[in-house]
Amino acid sequence: MNKKQRILAGLGVAALVAGSGVAYATWSATGTGSGAAKAATATPLVVTAGTTTADLYPGFTQGDVFLRVTNPNPYAVNVTSLTPGTITTSAPGCAATNITIAPATGLNIPVAANASNFAVTVPNIVTMITAAPDACQGVTFTINVTLGGVQV
Predict the structure, then answer these.
(1) Any idea what DSSP says for residue 24?
(2) Residue 1: its pLDDT value, please?
(3) Is the pLDDT of residue 13 over 60?
(4) How would you label 59-71 residue by residue, b for 16+ Cβ within 10 Å and e otherwise?
(5) Is residue 95, in this structure, part of any structural domain at all?
């Protein structure tokens, strides 16, 4: 091997050693610290009167309540209860006291996430008193309600 070949071979070995040194010279890094996650806040359901069916008459004890429910939450809600509040009517001669509403528990009414104007019927909780006057014929009663529910 002549001098030129020995120099080239030496440079080749030096390059190989230098290259392998780079491979061994990579550094790793780790870190510790904190991250963050935040829970959403439940938004109340919006409840409005629904389209009703005329099923009340004096002495009837199984009338239905018709609602429209909007669920602005990003998760489904299962409505489990209805608590009645104030009952009103604008019909002269037919007082709101001509009907009563029973609380409803044990309901199982799913309302989808982000649902808008979802029709809900709560059956068999309205009673019209036996002495309801003729002035109550065709009258729509407005019933304030509070719904209870849980995330599905």
Answers:
(1) H
(2) 67
(3) no
(4) eeeebbbbbebbb
(5) yes
